[in-house]
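Usage example:
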Amino acid sequence: MIKHLLSMDQLSAGDITKILDTADSLRQVTHRPIKKLPTLRGRTVCNLFYEASTRTRISFELAAKRLSADVINFSADSKSSVSKGESFKDTAWTLEAMGVDAIVVRHGSSGAPYQLSKWVKASVLNAGDGQHEHPTQALLDIFSIRERFKDLEGLRVLIVGDIVHSRVARSNVKGLVTMGADVTLIGPPTLIPAQAPSWGVKVSGDLDSVIADADVCYLLRVQRERQSEQLLPSLREYAAMWGLDARRMAKMRPDALVMHPGPMNRGVEIAADVSESPRSIILNQVANGLAVRMSLLYLMLGGRDEEEEAA
Amino acid sequence: MARAGHSETFSLKARVMEPPDVRRALRRISHEIVEHNRGTDDLVIVGIRTRGAPLADRIASSIASFESTAVPSGALDVTLYRDDVALKSPRSLESTTVPGDLDGRVVVLVDDVLYTGRTIRAAFDALLDLGRPRAIRLAVLVDRGHRELPIRADHVGKNLPTSAHEVVKVQVDEIDGEDAVLIGEYDTSVSSATAAPRAEGTRT
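Running the assembly step on the lines above writes:
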C-alpha cells in the first residue's frame, strides 16, 4: 500500500477497490455496542489543520480513535505557535520530533501535503490542499455511489458548479474516470477550467439538457467569496441556472442520486427539499467517510510494508 | 504465515486425512459439543475466517440433523485483533457475521488448525467486543502442537505431532474443492518462476 495519500493520481482502480472493500468490512464496527478495534494501539495520528473543517477533521479523528490510535488535534489558530510566526516546516519538524506516525493535513496552499511528505518520516494524508485535491472526499463519494450502483463502469455522473476552484471536483474526476465512469462537468463558463476536456470528461453549460440521463448529480458548494472576484453571477442567477431544485430533480431517472460534499448553501446550489429527498445520499456520504478513513489508516499504518523492508 | 516476497513451494510429505476422515471427525466433534453442553441450549457455533467458517457451518448443520433443532452459526474475522498486525503487511479483511446477541450464550469457536494459540487469543478479544458469552469453548480439526500461549482445545479432530518447520495445510470443500489435511514442507530454495502459488489457510 502507499505510504502517503497526496493525490488520486496515485491510486489504480485496483487500489481504490481494495480501499473501498476494506471500508465495507470496517463499517460493521459502527453497528456494534463496542465501536473500537485494537488495531492501531500505540500509533499516533496528528490532525494538522490550517483551514477550517468540521466533517473532515471530526471524521479523521473518530476514524483514528475507533482503531485505538492516539490523536492530536492541531489547528493553526490563535492558540498555537503559528500565531507566533512558526513556519510550516518548523511545525512539521516539531511533530516529527514528537514521533507521530501519521499527519492528516489540510492547508490553503496546493502542494503543502507533498512538501510535508518530504520533511517527515510519518505518513501524510491529504485532507484538502488549496485548489488541488481532496482525495479522501473522492474515495468516500465513490464508496457512496458504489453502495447504490455496484459498478461505476459507464455510470453517468454530473459534477455541477465551480470546477476551477474545487479540490473536491478535481479528486472526484480523477477517481471516477479511473473507475470507468462517464463524467460531465457543468457550470458557469468562467468556472470551468480550459484544460478540462483533456481530463477524459465532457463539458456542458446547460444542466437541463443533461440531467434526464444522469445516474448521479453531484453538486459542489458555491464559494460565496468568488462572487467578489466577478467569476460568479448573482446567487439568485446561479440558483436559476445551475442549482438543483424540485422542478429539475423531477426530470431525473427514478434511481438517480443527488450528492453534495457539504457544507451546503441551501437555496443556492441545492434546494432544501432536494437535500432532504430520498434521492439525496448526503448523510450517507458523511457516514461512509468514517469507514473510508478507517480503511486508509489501517492500510497505511496497520502494518509494516514488507516490500519496503526487503529493499 | 510465510512472508510475501519469498519464493516458496509446498512439497507434500503425506495426506493425513481424506474426505471421509474429515467428515467423521466433524461428526464426532458435533456429538461431543452437544454431550458436553447437555443439549443445544444457548449454543452458538462461530468459525474463525477463513477455513474455520465453513467447518462451523457444517458442525451446526450436523448438530441440527441429529438433535432436530436449529443451531446458529457465524464467522469471525480476527485480523484486526491479531498481535502481529503491526509486524506484517495489512491483510484484506473479511466480514464478521455473528448471529444475534452473544450475552449469556455458549460460544464454540471453530478453527482448522490449532498451532501457536495466537489466533485463538485474538478471537477471544474479538468475541468479547461483541458481547459477554457465558462460556467459550474451542473445537479444532487438527491440533499440531507448539503452543506459545496457555490455550487448549476442548474438541480435537486429530492430534498431529509435527516439527516446527513442517506445514499443515487444511483444505475444505467449500473453498478448495476438496476436504483434506496435508502435511509437508516449504522448499524456499526453488526459484519464483517455478514456485507454485501458496495456498491460503496454511499454517507455518
